[in-house]
Amino acid sequence: MSFTQPRLPYSPDALEPIISQRTVEYHYGKHEKAYIDTLNKLIEGTPFADMTLEDIILKSEGKTFNNASQAWNHIFYFFQFNPVGKREPVGKLRKQIEEQFGSVEEFKRKFEEAGTTLFGSGWVWLSRDKEGKLFITQGKDAANPMCEGLNPILVFDVWEHAYYLDYQNLRASYLHQLWDLVDWDIVASRYE
Ligand code: MN
Question: What does pTM read for this prediction?
Fold first, then answer.
């Protein structure tokens, strides 16, 4: 079995001006495709070839882990965006955010801060544990919180390739604007 890259549910210019068509074409079209193609080559003829992407992430290391996790992380990242999505969390998830962080604004501030203070390449994650408690974590390189027993529900990519074409070195500005693309209905469905 080999993995194929899912088609994005929106057109490549749909996230402009926050994420340009050019960035979508490079980031999803080339970087993400390369992770999937490399993974397919690495797992061919190995026991990983019959596993789900999630199982490969949990059971592999080194190159296979890096490419499997990057493949998964980018799908998770791009599929949480929607040019006409719900821009504020509601219901159970909002209640949990307010209970733990005080307010949605304060949560966003902490999340952005985790993104700006991560040195080098990686991801900032919002995850839940089995009881529904939320965690903001930084992950270096291809790290994924599912390896720590958490369920990811939201992620911002802080590798330079995610923002350099549109924001150059202004990572904080990129992170701050991403909220205007997040569809909280999708995040909530991951939380439930
Ligand atoms: Mn990326």
Answer: 0.97
